[in-house]
Design brief:
This protein has 427 residues and is an alpha/beta fold. It contains 12 helices and 12 strands. The strands form 2 sheets. The protein has a 7-stranded mixed beta sheet, sandwiched between helices. It binds pyridoxal-5'-phosphate (PLP). Pyridoxal-5'-phosphate (PLP) binds next to helix 5.
């Protein structure tokens, strides 16, 4: 059997297969660039592990209070070295990305302080954390105010407004690297660096946090290399490398991390407690794999952009553009097409490959969301997945793929599903 025959067994018609081959040739240089960035990040991770003398003893299981958990403490040093920060908190007790972000906010803000978002609305789930949408336990309930400046229509920072909105009680700034569920470009680390320099001139001591979800290892440097005090993310996204079964991380200044540790566990206890149970080997090995796994995800995104651009859908970013995160949005324009796209991704999954996704009211989101996810780790979005809110413009946000072979198959399967359901025409 030829390679194409294997794809045909998967329901991929010759037309879609050939389109894929054409796209692969077209974006060859871009795919190679992703591999080259992975090499750099792989060096960073291995050298940090060597520096901190990672050994088998680090993978041992602790329970109870978890005092003197060598593996946990060493892993936090490894993260701090890779992100070039003074300290880090990397824990299975941080349940998800939203939890990590809320931890950073609640631990570093006090009543009367203001949180400022100079680059537009933060991620959907943070609306309830902040209290933009009223919610029990929000920052607003604790007397912490919030202010936001939207991006200019061309997607750039509104420096005039930002200058006006940084006030005496502005204690913390939040910047989101990835676009999340918005139709705007994700910010490159370079762009974030420019914004940080501008803010530092106005208020040198303000705490600048970057929501780093989906951005880790996509570029050669991280936001903490360009002046962020705190970078925060989820371990079931990029830095977990697909192996971490849970967890979140914060890397940042000694003071920010200390505050976060006292909030995560308890004042007085901080980083000293928190047994790692049995997850450390997966945390280490996942972090070791993360640079190449992220490259697989980036390559899948580039390939998807190329295929769907050729099929006539608006895509963001375009395949030719440099990447700032692993997310690819494809604007599908109708609920039927968004459904078909997600069904196609699901169809190509190793886990739950036999089910059809449906939209549901997910906690933390304000409209029904459809999700395609055939993940070994439930909800993991460093694994190939696609989701989108059921609202105009019916954009699918696709991300992940532990291997590019799977990513390619998923993208072709999504295109095939649109074709099979009569939602696109191929001459
Ligand atoms: C995923 C994500 C979050 C929230 O993470 P969860 O793990 O889903 O809670 C926050 N910000 C961005 C940009 C994200 O992509």
């Amino acid at each position: 059997m030829t390679k194409q025959d294997y794809y045909e067994q998967f329901g991929i018609s010759p037309k879609i297969y050939n389109l894929g081959e054409e796209c692969l040739a077209l974006c060859k240089d871009k795919l190679e660039k992703a591999d080259s960035i992975a090499e750099i990040n792989q060096c960073k991770v291995i050298s940090a592990m060597k520096e901190h003398r990672v050994n088998n003893g680090c993978f041992m299981q602790t329970n109870g209070y978890g005092y003197d958990d060598l593996g946990r403490d060493t892993l936090e040093k490894v993260y701090a070295s890779v992100f070039h920060t003074e300290d880090a908190l990397v824990r299975p007790q941080i349940t998800c990305g939203t939890h990590a972000l809320q931890l950073a906010l609640f631990s570093n803000l006090r009543p009367g302080d203001e949180l400022y978002a100079p680059a537009g609305k933060p991620y959907d789930t943070l609306e309830e954390v902040i209290g933009i949408r009223p919610s029990k336990g929000s920052l607003a309930e604790y007397g912490i105010t919030y202010r936001q400046t939207d991006l200019l229509p061309d997607g750039s920072f509104d420096y005039g407004e930002i200058r006006k909105n940084i006030r005496p009680n502005t204690k913390m700034i939040t910047i989101q690297r990835s676009k999340g569920y918005q139709v705007r470009p994700s910010f490159s680390v370079g762009q974030i660096g420019e914004l940080i320099s501008f803010i530092r001139e106005i208020k040198p001591d303000v705490i600048i946090m970057v929501d780093n979800c989906y951005g880790e290892f996509v570029e050669e440097i991280e936001p903490s290399d360009v002046g962020a005090d705190l970078v925060v993310g989820s371990l079931i996204k990029n830095p977990g490398g697909g192996l971490a079964p849970i967890g979140g991380y914060l890397c940042g200044t000694k003071e920010c991390i200390e505050n976060a540790a006292y909030r995560l566990t308890s004042p007085g206890l901080g980083k000293e407690v928190g047994a790692s149970l049995g997850v450390l080997q997966e945390f280490y090995q996942g972090f070791f794999l993360a640079p190449t796994v992220v490259a697989s995800a980036v390559k899948t995104a580039i390939f998807a952009a190329c295929v769907f651009e050729k099929l006539g859908f608006p895509v963001l970013p375009r395949w030719k553009e440099d990447r700032a995160d692993i997310i690819q949005s494809v604007t599908l324009r109708t609920p039927e097409a968004l459904n078909a796209f997600c069904a196609g991704i699901q169809y190509a999954s190793a886990v739950d490959g036999y089910v059809t996704p449906e939209a549901w009211d997910m906690p933390g989101y304000d409209s029904p969301v459809i999700m395609a996810a055939g993940a070994f780790v439930s909800g993991s979005s460093i694994e190939l997945s696609a989701d989108g809110p059921m609202r105009e413009p019916y954009a699918a946000y696709m991300q992940g793929a532990l291997t590019f072979s799977h990513g390619k198959l998923g993208v072709l399967s999504a295109a095939q599903m649109l074709l099979s359901r009569g939602l696109i025409n191929l001459e």
